[in-house]
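Sample intake sheet
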Amino acid sequence: MKKSRALAQLFALVPGMGHMYLGYMKRGTFYILLEAAVIGLAIFLGRLYLDFLVPFAVLACPIIWIYAFFDCLHTSAKMQREGIDFPEDSFELPVVTDFWKSKKIQTALGVVLICVGSLSIFNTAMNQIDWQIRGRLNFVLPVFASLALIALGFWLLIRPLKKPNGTPEVNQTNEGGEEV
């Protein structure tokens, strides 16, 4: 059964739904979960009193929506052009799967998480001068979340990077003492 491009365009108004209509369930689920994660991140940042970071998370929502919309349009055009009725539902994210293989990226992400967690603790402490009035939960919950971000950042910085075969990667140096 041929899929209607018009219906795919209509379903594409909701990120991931157009892909699911076309038969790309994994890709559609990814876009739906990505959009939900960004909205959750915006709510989480607001809860940590990091209100100045919320617009960046909110700005990601229309970017994801536009990308998913046009990806669905191009996918439906390709299916129609090539006469594909039932596509092979294989969807891999090389960016995400290769992400953890780089120690530099882990280090950068660890530093960012430590900075965001520290900034959250600072903001929470500054905004909670009247914490007895608001209640202890409004103070304690963001502090624990901030400490969790800092701990995750430190964990990313100190954990050994594993090779694909499961053994820890050891930094090799040449005769001059530089990393290879």
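Comment: The CA atoms of residues 48 and 141 lie 9 Å apart. Helices lie at 5-11, 17-22, 25-47, 54-82, 94-97, 103-127, 131-134, 136-158.
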